[in-house]
């Protein structure tokens, strides 16, 4: 999905200088719990944060999201507004605590990733399509809603009005970010939360990252989160649709995506090291 910036969330690693990848003793689990408590306290300060915290709990809970460690999935993105062959697909693994990521392109030896600080590409002279720095966390940022907004640099505002979409009137919470957060701190997301289940039905968003929005922010779109599966006690979407927006109303169906092959992996089983000779940027 062409939208989100890659580092909106400041990872636990960079905030506290410890690694959550070696959870073998109670002290390290306590660090995780302390982080979850700090975020919970931050989100409890206004109605928007409290509503988003309810959504996080409905999806399985922030603590469980982090305890599951590394999420692997395949994300296939169909940009049908650009033609029938405009498809981006990668198999990716993302550490939910450090936000380190590694992607594999199907049918090739191309790999790219994110270290938590910089992007890399191997082979170094491989085409940068998709842009590794932008794409390293973009799919994760969509399938990881609402968990990705559980951060001290996120700000929350509940809208008084709901939004009707396909027969349901969803509650809306706008998420913005503190200056200097990631590559595109001016991005915003308006999360659509089901009034009864508290599961997320979609998100309105804009793209401001200069890596892809070179001529300024693009128009607001709506991305759905659909067909949830439960894995490791976490609700994960397996389907997305993207709609253009006409004011506050969804309009034309533009794009679609599938998230498949979900599995949770232990940190020790995944190689996040930058390959020797890789391009870094």
Structure, described:
With 281 residues, the chain is an alpha+beta fold. The chain has one domain (12-280): Clam (outer membrane lipoprotein receptor (LolB), chain A), CATH 2.50.20. The protein has six helices and 15 strands. The protein has a 15-stranded antiparallel beta sheet that branches. Strand 12 and strand 13 (234-246) form a beta hairpin. The longest helix is centred in the N-terminal third of the chain and has 18 residues, at 26-43. It is globular.
Layout of helices and strands, plus pairs?
Elements (H helix, E strand, L loop, with lengths): L11 H5 L9 H18 L3 H12 L3 H6 L2 E9 L8 E9 L5 E4 L6 E4 L4 E4 L9 H4 L2 H6 L10 E5 L4 E3 L2 E10 L11 E5 L6 E6 L15 E4 L1 E6 L2 E13 L2 E17 L13 E2 L1
Antiparallel strand pairs: 1-2, 1-14, 2-3, 3-4, 4-5, 5-15, 6-8, 7-8, 8-9, 9-10, 10-11, 11-13, 12-13, 13-14
Brief rundown of the structure:
The chain is of the alpha+beta class and 281 residues long.
What fold name goes in the CATH topology slot? outer membrane lipoprotein receptor (LolB), chain A
Using DSSP, what is the number of strands?
15
Task: Please give the alpha-carbon distance between the first and last residues.
Answer: 21 Å
Question: Major sheet: size, sense and barrel closure?
Answer: 15 strands, antiparallel
CATH-derived architecture? Clam
Rounded average pLDDT: 90
Beta-strand percentage? 35-45%
Order of SSEs, N→C? Answer: HHHHEEEEEHHEEEEEEEEEE
Radius of gyration: 18 Å
**CATH class categorisation:** Mainly Beta
Helicity level: 10-25%
Low-confidence stretches: 1-28
Count, helices: 6
Shape: globular
Structural class: alpha+beta
Number of domains: 1
